[in-house]
Amino acid sequence: MTLNRSLFLVLGALTIAVTPPGASAQEPLFERDVLPVLTKQCLGCHGGLRQKGGLDMRTMALLLKGGKHGPAAKAGDADGSLLWQRIASDEMPPGETKLSAAEKALIKQWIARGLATESQTAKDDDLLLAPGVKHDPRVVAAAIDKHIQQRLAALKREAAPRSDDIEFLRRVTLDLNGCVPTGQEAAAFLDSKAPDKRAQLIEKLLASPRFGEQLGRTWREWICPPELPSDMNGGAQPHKQAFGFGDWIGKQITKGATWDKIVRDVLTVDGQIKDNPHVIFYSLVGEGGKATPDGSARATASFFLGVQMQCAQCHDDPYRNWAQNEFWALAAFFGRTQGDFNTVTDGKAPPNMSKRGPKLPIAKGAEIVIPPSAFKNSGKAVQAAFLGGKSLDPAAEKPLRPLLADWVTAKDNPYFAKAFANRTWFYFFARGLVNPVDDLRELNPPSHPGLLKMLGNEFADSGFDIKHLVRSICNSEAYQRTSRASMKQDRQSIAAQTAAFGRMPVRVMTADVLYDSLRQVYGDPKLDLRADDAKGAAAMGQAAQIADPYIEFLRRFGTNEDDTTDFTHGIPQMLTMINHPRLLSGSKALDAFRKTNPTPEQTVEWLYLSTLARRPSASEREAAAKYLANSQNSYVGVLWMLVNRSEFLFVR
Amino acid sequence: MAMPLLHRRDLLRLSAAGLLSGVSVPWFEALARASVGRPRGKSCILLWMDGGPSQQHTFDPKPGGQFRAAPTSVPGIRIVEQLPQLGQCMRDMVLLRSMRTEINDHYDAKYLLHTGYRRAPGFEHPAVGSIASHQLAAANSDMPAFVTIDAGYDLRLDGGRSYRNVPGYLGPQHAPLAVNDPARGLENLRAAGNDLAARLELLAAGERGFSEEYALPNVSARQAAFDRAVRLMRSPRARAFDVEAEPARMREAYGNHRFGQSCLLARRLVEAGVSFVEVFHRGWDDHDGAARNMAQRAPWLDRAMATLIRDLKDRGMLDDTLIVWMGEFGRTPGNGDGHFCNAWSTMWAGGGIRTGQVIGRTSETGRNPGGTIEDRPISAVDYMATLCLALGMNIRQDFQAPGQRPVPMVDHAAQPIRELLS
Amino acid sequence: MIPVRCSLVCWLLLLTIPVVGRGQPPPYKPAANAAEAIKRIEEIGGSVRKAALEGDALEVDLRSTAATDEHLQYLLALKNVAVVRLRECRIGDAGLVHLGKIAVLKKLHLEKTQITDAGLKHLASLKELEVLNLFGCGIGDAGLNSLQPLPKLKSLFVTETKVTEAGITALRKTKPNLVVVPDRALEREQAEAAWETAKKALAEMDVRFQVAKKDAENLPPRVAELKKKMDEAAKKLNETKSKGGDVSGAQAALKAAQQQHSQAANAAKNFEIAQKHLAAYRQLEADTRSRVEALRTK
């Protein structure tokens, strides 16, 4: 899952060797530059899990407090700082791997220059838009662009040019409706002379039910990743119910429900799955098909609040300053929630956790006991508390989930609006303003602090209006830039430009989008790309391994949801696309078009428009004509070629 | 610390010389300039008996047990008489009789014995086959590095859900290529339609244009993957997937059972350069006692495995190929009707390790013969470390997992079985 | 610039070759240095890697590639080539001339190549050679003779060649520690031992089968009678219990009666299982016997 991330590291490493990282001539900052080194080299022994020598290095404050030998660093005095002494002499870290020369130089420089932190430097970022009111989306879009422009200017980087109509049409249609435009739609947009045709197209796509559907299944995929050996349900994800959940989110969005309403419904759901498809949320994030307090807390934190608490489950987070108490205080809200694939109710007792230890006693009300599976503090009772807030009355017998929902979805919740804005930004740009997208915290600052704050405010002030946020982003110049990267351009500057949102990334279609696009161009709602013996295998009792065409497609063509630019297909996917007989055996959509008696040139043009959302170039027309003259597969051979093009698979 | 980048770099290197893109991209060169690659190490054929095979009905028989022990070609080592041919391969085999792996639940045990780590929600550890692919495979091979073969099941399908091999953070190019039926080989390997060359020509022109306009790593990665797939289709080595190409007497020697044919396919694949093959046969969860089922399995198991060992030896491949036979745990001493992770056996063969010996010992007498380990308990991480070492990997290295989290290839607490390694 | 390994055009040419062919390899061009040699080797589809984690010995792998005799000259530009794999290459005696110059070579794999007895004499200079694999090559006893000068040869593979047992015996006279595969005598010995074990297992199974058969014939009519006995034993146990006497004797009697009953009740089923088992053990015996016979006729 870290391919591109690691590539980034290579590029990063190359950069460091030549110039200081990122913003070239800038000084090293704690969060951006120093903390990654400490995380890699030091926090294993001097973090939340262990504090050897009494030293915890997770935050600036803790570093200054130091351990039993005194403060770890003195501003401006590297030689007098324990941190520098220990790493300079290679006394630390104790293992075989020492800090590299570049890492050492970085830390020395950082101490010598006075221990600068990013939070200090970013404090007085201008929001550009006053909080408290909802603005016109065009105004928000302009503010987005100004934020990005400022950052680019500080980095001394240019923005990439505006996308052409073809890039924009295909990108925005895939992003907002989850499918390539039809030939007709493509031709209509490309031929339109309206000056505001892009804004018009955005409105049209937002108004389509496919917008909700696409966002719904995107959230489904985030919440219920494809089955993996480690997944919470032991490799047996309840696909059908998860699809129902995605559909439900989609329908809510189409109905105009705001994000706070949707999240409130999810957090407080009660009853049967047949009436409430979102019941499945709890068992999806639980374990072994059951809701668990810790699973619910983890998911609420990650998806709705944008914070990672999974490490704090068993011990204080070694790398982040979340305490184990804080995690279980959140889990306590779900202490009485019982759920499986069919129902969710609040009972008196917690769900049965016998698989991982004895049944959990709950003293009463809003208290939970840390289970034996946690390797620290098991057996300790923790009272429900909002993140960073005070504890609830342990005797309260009131339903707890509504209380939590009130707090989560409150307009002034410090995480809720930002978390959604950040994830939505990630959806479009393949990179959050904060990364990872669920790691909002002071020491992991956003690349554009003002922009994130502004988007959070705007989202909250619009009453958590999803379409308002999406409309604002899609109308920005930032979203409408090209993703072209010619071979003549310098690779490092392209990477830096993309990271600063001065250029759009090229992403890989998700399995859902690819499947819908193939179904559309082949005019076959049940497109089946399974191996031809799949049915026989199912009859032989291997049903668990070979499912219906859609699920098998998702399994095969699943992408990296952490990095949507990551190309993850291998030989099996390629062989399917190249050799599966279905992709050469005709398209009903093509047949329908052929009924209008088009010329061969028009047919080739239609095929290009239906797949790549553009007309063929002169040389492409010529090549197609030459192929058609000699081929028996004729037009479907051209269609095969088009769906096998990189240009088809990538969202450019 | 090992950079987790070689795979990516290798991929880029492939792209740089891409067939489809037909252009050379200079900036890859800086990344691609690797010195000579890691050693090839050994290949591995993992024979996975899904559900947990009984040690007392195979490699660790006990006096008074349901199956009698018979002498083998190594004096002093005895295995059940139901595996006579395998017994005569004992000089090329090692029995590990003291596995102690702490998990009696099928699925979690399968995860543990495939990854060396306990299952933890939200974090994907790479399967050992993917690690082998990452560490041992040649960068530019036209063969996949990791292949799984479904050898089906006899009797009935139990033993819980199968483990699915995933590469985790090592990246998708280390995912296994799955053969669902050894007789059918690799699906979609043959071209549909008869004008593939013409279609590829039509495709190539467009691809070249796109890669010039979008000279990005993911675009190159896709074109490289496409090239690899086409090269595989065209490669003479891809014939390795076709067991029909094997002489009839050889197919006969491995036995008609699907497991035997899977072993033969595994041998063909290793011969063609595949680093890791996992053959899995399901339905070994003998809750009504192991004796009955084992007696029926013995003929095909004995024949297939003995033939595999002899065939590899005949071809001079045995020293370079490690065979591992195991399940996720053993079965309760006596009749073998329950799961048993406290004292169970795996069998290793070939691989240039010190064969002809037994590692570890379980109790022979007492109330419950075979119920306890008397010598050299082998934990799951010990097993994993030994396996990786035997395959020629450097186990003292960390991978970079998401969130800049270093994860050791094998848990540092592991104590490899040194007496096995030469 | 990295030269394109195989141009698009050549790739398309490759596609049009109808047979499972390897296409035309790039022609041999002298390599000025090691880096260039590695590049050339990769161009013909091979790879150069370290032979082991430790040390700087190299392994050159050209299995199933289009490499020809003259391509092997690339190997001479490399230092420390310890392992060479040429399985299924178009390599003949001319190639062995080049290989004979790699003085440090330890392992040489020539499976299914076109080398002949005449060519093997070129390997006489390989003073470090430990492993030589000639599987499936058209060589015979005459060729083995040329291997006499190899001082360190430890393993030799001559399966599927024309080499005879006599040839092997002759070679081993000067090399008593040499392991030669195949070793027919050892194989026969082992196959016979396996057969013996299988025969014993079958005999044992046959005894059990006969018992099961007898049970199946005799016991079912007695099921009612044994049931009655079992009920009586149970009754007696209850009586003993209510009297407060020692129950151990009655318990044992009941257990025995139960066993007899279940043996009778399940006799048909057990017989069926025994039949299946007997078939499996017969299979085992037949498998081992046929191998012995095959080895005897060879």
* Average pLDDT score of chain B: 86
**Which stretches of chain B are poorly predicted, pLDDT < 50 over at least 5 residues?**
1-35
Order of helices and strands of chain C: HHEEEHEEHEHEHHHH
Distance between the termini of chain C: 58 Å
How big is the Rg of chain C? 34 Å
Distance between the termini of chain B: 26 Å
Measured by DSSP, the beta-strand proportion of chain C falls in 5-15%
> In which order are the strands of the major sheet of chain C placed?
1-2-3-4-5-6-7
Number of domains of chain B: 1
* Largest sheet features of chain C: 7 strands, mixed
Q: CATH top level of the largest domain in chain C?
A: Alpha Beta
State the share of residues found in helices of chain B, binned by percent: 25-40%
The CATH topology name of chain B reads: Alkaline Phosphatase, subunit A
Task: Provide a concise account of the structure shown.
The complex is a heterotrimer of chains A (652), B (422) and C (298). With 422 residues, chain B is of the alpha/beta class. Chain B has helices spanning 6-16, 26-32, 84-87, 106-115, 128-136, 196-213, 217-234, 248-254, 258-271, 290-314, 380-390, and strands at residues 43-49, 69-71, 78-80, 93-99, 146-153, 177-179, 276-282, 321-326, 330-331, 339-340, 344-350, 357-359, 361-362, 373-375, 398-401, 405-408.
What brief labels describe this structure?
heterotrimer; B: 422 residues; alpha/beta; Alkaline Phosphatase, subunit A; eight-stranded mixed sheet; two-stranded antiparallel sheet; globular; disordered N terminus; C: 298 residues; Leucine-rich repeat, LRR (right-handed beta-alpha superhelix); 2 domains; seven-stranded mixed sheet; 7 strands; elongated
